TrEMBL record:
GO biological process: glutamate biosynthetic process
Record's catalysed reaction(s): L-glutamate + NADP(+) + H2O = 2-oxoglutarate + NH4(+) + NADPH + H(+)
Binding site for NAD(+): T213, N244
Active-site residues, as the UniProt record annotates them: K130 (proton donor)
Protein name as it appears in the record: Glutamate dehydrogenase
CDD domains linked to this entry: NAD_bind_2_Glu_DH
The entry's keywords: NAD, Nucleotide-binding, Oxidoreductase
Length: 453
């Protein structure tokens, strides 16, 4: 009998669950993609006989390692580090590093899997990977963070390289951490290469990389609104998170004529009915990246704003919503509440912020809904442009990069339109389906070209 992955979808998902016990985030990400891909490859037997989906959902390799470091009191501390190299069919592994206590193998596997499709959507030659550690930079001194980053890179350096695997930032990893890791890589290997992106401008970083993910998510939102003859002028936005992605998304919403009502962190959310202006966003950026404080401090600075502890901001009525904090932060009931309150569009700055139930609520309501792998691809796209600049040993001008980011986000939107049509509903686009199929097709066709490897 022929061996194939052409079993029905529930049987395929059961297999994924069995092979990945105790990894709910990874199973969730595979299920969301498989729901669309199954339909697309129904009559394309070669994808089944070559077991392409099964192979994409099995990382090329997972590296797990001990990270020992010494805190300021001389105590020995031990963390677990990882790099998940999911798929390099279309280019070197590429994807961020996350330092957060919630990091597990399941979380990094889901992120590396999503990254594979996202990177394909950008049109740039990048495979998918992700890494991190269960290290919490919050409350640590700069020296402690430095020692941790150096120790992390002391193992990671042997698995990465400018043409092998190029990590970048993610939650808990910004310019400071990238600097410490790049410095350690250079020190160990004696090579100055583009092994990381998100670097400082003085040592090979790209202009607009810090802004790119948040700005890109708003460009994607504008592309979606345009299909309905709308824009952001006068519209209200609810945003979660208050880190790199959230603050830059807020900035671009304001620049586009919208009003931002909320920001959040893991302790709760702030609601500012007067609108979070550019001056207030600058305060939040400095508070988070320099003073390393909490979002609740906003209400002491700006009267009229309120802080709600332990809650997400989805109950605040809005025209558009941008989840920009973390995975599974917007659940089925939150999605229902947003739709009930008149939310017209959701653009995901974070990776997989909406759970499977929420995804179905947005799809069923036929609102404009962009999944993270399409909407937040601007960050990794500019990382890809940073790789090109490093290879050329040049730095491109800001105007050129801004235009490329706009073009890439528009291109991803067009790919979603191409593959996201729904039979019998002209004018409606299922962006989740569009992104999944467009991303899958490119990676799958490259894998087919290589034969069985
Ligand atoms: N930095 C980048 O270029 C990209 C980031 N992303 C995704 O965007 C999201 C945010 O990442 P960044 O802004 O880079 O990280 P960051 O470290 O700058 O900010 C993370 C924010 O999320 C909040 N947060 C973390 N865990 C939370 C929780 N359990 N509940 C509520 N809030 C929580 C933090 O308080 C912080 O405000 C993540 O899902 C990340 O994977 C996606 C594409 C690129
Ligand atoms: O810039 C990069 O390489 C990675 C960005 C990232 O981690 C993501 O897109 O989720």
């Amino acid at each position: 009998m022929a061996v194939t992955d052409h079993v029905d979808l529930p049987t395929f998902i059961e297999g994924v669950k069995k092979r990945n016990p105790g990894q709910p985030e990874f199973v969730q990400a595979v299920q969301e993609v498989a729901e669309d891909i199954y339909d697309f490859i129904e009559d394309k037997e070669h994808y089944h006989s070559e077991q392409i989906l099964r192979r994409i959902a099995e990382p090329d390799r997972i590296i797990s390692f001990r990270v020992c470091w010494e805190d300021d009191n001389g105590n020995v501390r031990v963390q677990r580090g990882y790099r998940v190299q999911n798929n390099n069919a279309i280019g070197p592994y590429k994807g961020g590093i996350r330092f957060h206590p919630s990091v597990t193998e399941s979380v990094l596997k889901f992120l590396a899997f999503e990254q594979t499709f996202k990177n394909a959507l950008t049109g740039l030659p990048m495979g998918g990977g992700k890494g991190g550690a269960n290290f919490n930079p919050k409350g640590k001194s700069d020296r402690e963070v430095m020692r941790f980053c150096q120790s992390f890179m002391t193992e990671l350096y042997r698995h990465v390289g400018a043409d092998v695997d190029v990590p970048a930032g993610d939650i808990g990893v910004g310019g400071r951490e990238i600097g410490y890791m790049f410095g350690q890589y250079k020190r160990i290997t004696n090579q100055f290469t583009g092994v990381l992106t998100g670097k400082g401008l003085e040592y090979g970083g790209s202009l607009i990389r810090p802004e790119a993910t948040g700005y890109g998510a708003v460009y994607f939102l504008l592309n979606m609104l345009k299909t309905r003859g709308e824009d952001l002028v006068g519209k209200t936005a609810v945003i979660s998170g208050s880190g790199n992605v959230a603050t830059h998304a807020a900035e671009k919403i304001v620049q586009s004529g919208g009003k931002v009502l909320t920001l959040s962190d893991s302790q709760g959310f702030i609601h500012d009915p007067d609108g979070i202006t550019q001056e207030k966003i600058d305060w939040v950026k400095a508070h988070k990246t320099k003073r390393r404080g909490r979002i609740q401090d906003y209400v002491s600075e700006y009267k009229g704003a309120t802080f709600t502890a332990g809650k997400t901001p989805w109950g605040v009525p809005c025209d558009v919503a941008l989840p920009c904090a973390t995975q599974n932060e917007l659940l089925g009931d939150d999605a229902r509440l947003l739709v009930k309150n008149g939310c017209k569009a959701v653009s995901e700055g974070a990776n997989m912020p909406t759970d499977l139930e929420g995804v179905h609520v947005f799809k069923d309501a036929r609102i404009l809904y962009a999944p993270g792998k399409a909407a937040n691809a601007g960050g990794v796209a500019v990382s890809g442009l940073e790789m090109s600049q490093n290879s050329e040993r040049r730095s491109w001008k800001e105007a050129e990069l801004q235009q490329l980011l706009l073009d890439i986000m528009e291109g991803i939107h067009t790919s979603c339109l191409t593959y996201g049509g729904v039979a019998g509903e002209p004018g409606y686009t299922d962006y989740v389906r569009g992104a999944n199929i467009a991303g899958f097709k490119k990676v799958a066709d490259a894998m087919l070209a290589y034969g069985v490897v």
